[in-house]
Design goal:
Blueprint: E1 3-9, H1 17-28, E2 33-38, H2 57-68, E3 71-75, E4 78-79, E5 82-83, H3 85-95, E6 104-108, H4 115-127, E7 131-132, H5 149-154, H6 156-174
Parallel strand pairs: 1-2, 1-3, 3-6, 6-7
Antiparallel strand pairs: 4-5
This protein binds flavin mononucleotide (FMN).
Flavin mononucleotide binds at residues 11, 13, 16-18, 77-81, 111, 113-114, 143.
């Protein structure tokens, strides 16, 4: 059976390295793993508990995709030692609908230096009752060394880390 994964980048930047990593994952994932990138975080309204989720099509779209997925991949930059605003905003929208509950999640980090956001995301996902898959939550040595899709595609180390990450996520989702 095909495993379905939703992948979310915490960066809206056109040349985002986090998004680039997710794109590479979609290119090399095996036939039994379908990875879809959700790229609409920029459309989310600022979270306000007074707003109704049912009136926000983009919020419902992400919620439905997470619920229907076997696992979620999140790749987010660190901004000022925190999670990016767009990512935190989207996650705040998902708190009430419980779409992340028991969902296997891999938290990918493109920078060995960026430890604060990774720790914060781990805490946020844990309190939202997601299953943070530690063995799939890998740091990829990209920032400072890889700047193009071509260089990313040529890196055997990145390919290896992606394969390990997908295998670990698949194992966690099968339990
Ligand atoms: C506003 C801003 C704040 C940043 N703060 C940090 C930081 O606290 N720690 C860090 O390691 N990198 C920091 N960076 C560097 C980003 O992690 C780096 O630019 C990364 O490539 C952004 O991800 P993206 O390529 O997916 O957009 C910051 C970048 C920006 C634009």
């Amino acid at each position: 059976m095909t495993m379905k994964i939703i992948a979310i980048s915490g960066s809206l930047r056109k040349l985002s390295l986090n998004t680039l990593l997710l794109q590479r994952i979609t290119q090399i994932s095996p036939p039994d793993i379908e990875v879809e990138i959700f790229s609409r975080l920029g459309e989310f309204p600022l979270f306000n508990p007074d707003l109704s989720e049912s009136e926000q099509a983009v919020v419902l779209a992400l919620k439905t995709k997470i619920i229907n997925a076997d696992a979620v991949i999140i790749a987010s930059p660190e901004y000022a030692h925190g999670v990016t605003g767009v990512m935190k905003n989207a996650l705040d929208w998902m708190v009430g609908n419980e779409s992340f509950v028991y969902k296997p999640v891999a938290l990918l980090n493109i920078s060995p230096r960026a430890t604060h956001a990774q720790a914060a995301l781990t805490e946020i996902m844990t309190v939202m009752s997601a299953h943070v898959v530690a063995k799939a939550s890998l740091t990829f040595p990209i920032l400072g060394s890889i700047t193009s899709p071509q260089a990313l595609a040529q890196s055997d180390e990145i390919t290896h880390l992606i394969n390990v990450m997908l295998q670990e996520l698949q194992q966690a989702a099968a339990v």
